[in-house]
Specification:
Largest sheet: 8 strands, mixed
Strand order of the largest sheet: 7-1-2-8-9-10-11-12
Number of helices: 11
Distance between the termini: 44 Å
Length: about 290
């Protein structure tokens, strides 16, 4: 029985592949994108998250924690989970319900059982299940088990991936995957390393591999004003569309700030600041592609 770490199963998603879908988010990611909006997915193991907007500042968590994960400095809740042992004492003590453990271990059977609940919607809308993250290819056995069992029930499968994985893993996964939502974050090699912590060669090699194997791909391109909204980046995306006939489209994903509070709530520091583009800017980006 394959087991893995999940941090969310979200139903009725309409922006993660065709039709109505259920998205399964797995923990763990090999990249370190500076604009990441799911920082709770970076680590593979469960971790404590504080919803600081809910915190009343009572200090009960600090008083009960034996590892100094919680401090209150000039009325501000300061977090440092580097020594956290996931005892859960602070969560039990928090009367405001601001603390939670993000991520849990479960079986592939349990995941697919949850996915199956909405099969009627998949069948009528052309939807299915999308496994995302984090990076789902970091848990290949768990991912494959979810995909295999979903296919047995006639459910369309999609995998959202950054493509940074060993070739054998990609080859094992593609047999059970109908569609790849392929993140393409930056086309300049050095900037890719600067923004994500890895060089893009493996990602591009795996994209070429999916073309050879004739697997359907949709590019998903996060667009960050002032970082990758450059003419050469748009041209490079368009060049991939010309080169690979298996790419069925491009999703431009403008930066949003929905994940910013989670960085602080995990005790992480985000060094960069990002702006949210308006609708007119997004339309201009689309016209360039």
């Amino acid at each position: 029985m394959s087991r893995g770490n999940v941090f969310q199963i979200q139903r009725y998603c309409i922006n993660d592949g065709p039709g109505i879908r259920t998205c399964v988010f797995l923990k763990g990611c090999p990249l370190d994108c500076i604009w990441c909006h799911n920082p709770e997915a970076k680590r593979r193991d469960p971790q404590v998250l504080c919803r600081l907007a809910k915190c009343h500042g009572c200090g009960d968590c600090a008083r009960i924690c034996l590892h100094n994960c919680h401090k209150f400095e000039e009325g501000k809740h300061v977090l440092d989970f580097s020594d956290c042992v996931l005892c859960g004492n602070c969560i039990s003590a928090c009367q405001a319900g601001a603390l939670e453990i993000v991520g849990y271990e479960c079986t592939a059977e349990e995941v697919v059982e949850a996915v199956r609940k909405d099969k009627i919607f998949y069948d009528t809308s052309g939807g299915g299940v999308t496994v995302s993250g984090g990076e789902p290819l970091m848990q290949p056995d768990f991912l494959i088990a979810i995909l295999q069992k979903s296919k047995k029930y006639g459910i369309h499968t999609a995998v959202e991936t950054c493509g940074f994985a060993e070739r054998q893993i990609m080859e094992d996964v593609l047999e059970y995957t109908d569609l790849f939502l392929y993140d393409y974050k930056e086309t300049d090699r050095e900037l890719h390393y600067k923004y994500t912590g890895v060089y893009p060669e493996r990602i591009l090699e795996n994209l070429e591999f999916l073309y050879v194997k004739k697997k359907d791909v949709i590019l998903r391109c996060p667009m960050i004003p002032g970082y990758n909204d450059r003419e050469d980046h748009f041209k490079a995306i368009a060049a991939l569309l010309d080169r690979y006939g298996n790419i069925k489209g491009v999703d431009l994903e403008p930066y949003h700030n929905l994940g910013e509070a989670k960085w602080e709530g995990l005790g992480l520091v985000r060094k960069n600041k990002f702006s949210i583009p308006g609708p007119d800017v997004v339309e201009r980006w689309k016209s360039k592609i």
